[in-house]
Amino acid sequence: MATTRPILSIGSGIDTPHLRGAVRLLQILLQRAGFLSANAIVDGLFGQGTQSAVIKFQRSKNFFADGIVGEETWLALENNSAKPSQKRPILRQGDGVNNSQLRGAVRVLQFLLQRAGYLPKNFQVNGIFDKQTETAVINFQRVKNLLINGIVDLETWLALEGKTPEKHSKYPILRRGDGIEFPNLKDAVKELQTLLRLQADGLFGKYTEAGVKNFQRNKNLFIDGVAGGQTWSNLLNKPTRTRR
Question: Is the dihedral of CA 39, 42, 46, 47 positive or negative?
Fold first, then answer.
């Protein structure tokens, strides 16, 4: 594996805050493998409950059961998590509140969104699919050119896990505010502005929106100022001069 995981043991994350992210990942992987309760708090603190789960997992793999997470244990946990048979439930806002059996899956979702940069580093992975989690899912779906509905289906799961090639990821659906509220879309906005013969600053403001609308009007497309699949296709096939 290219990624080097730190060696973890009881106490990690308590006196060593820089290890909390790794401990959270460990706890999530243990939950996915069924060795840590779905209701257990993913807090990044390696306590007795986490140690007990590690020991049980190590025994199941016939490893030396010392409760210390080294390279062999990390690799087994990550391989176990990556099994194609792993269930990926459809998730939406509200899951994990009244249906506690989905909290483990929501925690995995939140961790993957956090790792991809769609949830802040200090976000509490709590297994509750709240509005902030839904917004992160929507932003991810937009960037990856998936169906934008805030619902985590198989396609969204696979994209989050990096198991499918990105399709047209360079050309996500763009609208006013992109590049301003979502800096990760700046490069795509610049490409759009260049094709529209506008100043390419990476900020989708009112002038860019007007440029998109003019282009859509000239091409007899639906005029909404949103650069979606049809607009991108027309821009890329035959870049057309548009009025500012």
Answer: negative
The tokens describing 174, both together, are: 């763009």
Residues with Cβ < 8 Å from 152, sequence gap 6 or more? 88, 90, 91, 92, 109, 137, 160
Do 26 and 68 reside in the same domain of the chain? yes
Number of folded domains that form the chain: 3
How confident is the model at residue 3, as a pLDDT?
45
Task: pLDDT band for 172, please (50, 70, 90 cuts).
Answer: confident
Q: What is the CATH number of the domain that holds 129?
A: 1.10.101
What is the identity of the amino acid at 58?
Answer: Q
pTM of the model: 0.53
Q: Which domain holds residue 131?
A: 100-160
Residues with Cβ < 8 Å from 39, sequence gap 6 or more?
A: 100, 103
pLDDT at 42: 83
Going by pLDDT thresholds of 50, 70 and 90, the confidence category of residue 1 is very low
C-alpha span between 73 and 52 (Å, rounded): 14
